[in-house]
Every structure is written in structure tokens, then in C-alpha cells.
Amino acid sequence: MSDTARAGRQVGDGPLARGAATVHILLVVELMLLLTTAPGLVGLVLLDRDRSNLPLAALCLTPLGPAVAAALHTLRHQRPDLTDLRPAAVFRRAWRANLGPVSRIWLPLLLWLTVVAVNLAHRAAVGLPGWWSALLVVVAVTALLAGVNALVITTCFTFRTRDVARLAAYFLIRRPGVTIGHAALLALAAGVVAVGSEAVLALLGAVFVALLHRTSRPMIDTIEKEFTA
Fold first, then answer.
1. How far apart are alpha carbons 180 and 72 in whole angstroms?
2. What is the DSSP code (8-state) at residue 63?
3. Cβ pair 218, 171 in contact under 8 A
4. Does pLDDT of 201 surpass 80?
């Protein structure tokens, strides 16, 4: 082994170097997340927190699905080695590759959740009974959790959209720990927005995606063992 290769290996293998590489990857992923969601993020920050703005808020969220998928792919496939760090390039490739498949999951989910949110926000005007409103909330939360599963599955594997939907619903029950973990992450994200703002949540985006990847590992591992060759 040449001196240059040996030196590169020493730089890339030490615990301090791995830690520095991980921080570097998270910072780059955070920057890419902000860049790819910037138009929507600006709109969210400028919108008043009024129920009449729910459709506009949903429109601002349309870039979020592909951006999160690209970030998840980057964290999953980028090796924390200082001699081979290319998180920005990995993110760009993942964003382009996943834009179509993720959008087929993300956009219908976002539309459905928006319809539910608008109906709940105007339940007095539309005459929704209390039990129906509660049922809508349960259905919306379930759909959101299944959507998170579907986003992870689409990012990590190549399945048909209908198979992704089936697996996403199946793993809500098959891996309850993953479902609870995703629910906790969503609740934490909602709390950050409620206490701070959408901008604060955006600045923590890479950390949330890393937690999403960690929480989803049991589901990912099971799919790799049982549903892929």
C-alpha cells in the first residue's frame, strides 16, 4: 500500500474522522434540504396561521416529499469516510431519481390530508358531527403514518406504487415499534412548529431525517430479507 493510500486510510478510519465526516454529511444534507424546499419554506414562513391558508400551506409542502426522500437516500448510502465524501452529489442524484416515484406517493397523500384538514377546520360550517370528525382524525393520522412508511420504502427499494402502498399499510401492524417511532417523530415535529416555527423545523431537517432512518431500520431490514431477492 502506498504512503498516500495509507495516509488516506488513517484519515478516514479514526473515530474523530468518522465523527467529523458524519457532521459534514449532516450539514451538507441540511443545506440541500433547505435549497430544494426553499420556495415552499419561504411561503410557509410568510403565511399567517389561519385555517383559510390550509390549501396554500399544502401547496408549499409539495417539495418536501422528494427532498426528504433524497436526504434519506443520502444518509443511507453515504459512507462516513473523510477520503470519500460526496453527499451533495448523492443527494442530487437521489432527488432526480426519486422525484417521480415519490411524487406519486406524496402528492395524493398531501391532497387527501388537505381535504381532511379543511373539512375539520370548517366542521361547524359543513355540519360534521363530533364522531365523524374524530373518525376523520384517526383516518388522517393512519394515512400519514402509512405515507411515511411508503416514503421510506420508495426511497430504499424499487417496487410498483401499488405494492408500496400495500407494504406501507402492512408494516403499520407488522412493525408497531416503527409505527410508534414515526408517530413520535411527527408529534415532535408538530411540537417544534407550535413552539417555534416552520423555519426552526427546517433547520433541524437533517437531524429529523437521520432519526427517521434510524427508526425505520427494522422495517427496512425486514423488507430486505423477506421481499427482495
1. 19
2. T
3. no
4. yes
Give the chain's mean pLDDT. Answer: 89
Q: Which residues contact 168 (CB under 8 A, 6 or more apart)?
A: 146, 147, 149, 150, 153
Q: Using H for helix, E for strand and C for coil, what is the string for 65-128?
A: HHHHHHHHHHHHHCCCCCCCCCHHHHHHHHHHHHHHHHHHHHHHHHHHHHHHHHHHHCHHHHCC
Residue pair 126/119 in contact by the 8 Å Cβ criterion: yes
Classify the phi-psi angles of 127: left when phi > 0, otherwise alpha if psi is within -120 to 50, otherwise beta. Answer: left
Burial (CB count within 10 angstroms: exposed 0-12, middle 13-18, buried 19+), residue 170 = middle
Collapsed DSSP state (helix, strand, coil) of residue 61: coil
User: Does residue 127 register a pLDDT over 90?
Assistant: no
Start-to-end CA distance of the chain, whole Å, equals 36
- Cα–Cα distance measured from residue 10 to residue 16, given in angstroms and rounded to the nearest whole number: 11
Share of the chain above pLDDT 90, in %: 71
Rg (C-alpha) for the chain, rounded Å, is 20
Mean pLDDT calculated for residue range 186-212? 94
Backbone angles phi, psi at 122, to 5 degrees: -115, 35
Calculate what percentage of the chain has a pLDDT beyond 70: 90
Judge contact between 61 and 40, C-beta under 8 A. Answer: yes
Q: What ranges do the domains of the chain cover?
A: 3-226
Cβ–Cβ contacts within 10 Å for residue 221, how many?
Answer: 11
pLDDT tens across 144-194, in order?
Answer: 999 999 999 999 999 999 999 999 999 999 999 999 999 999 999 999 999
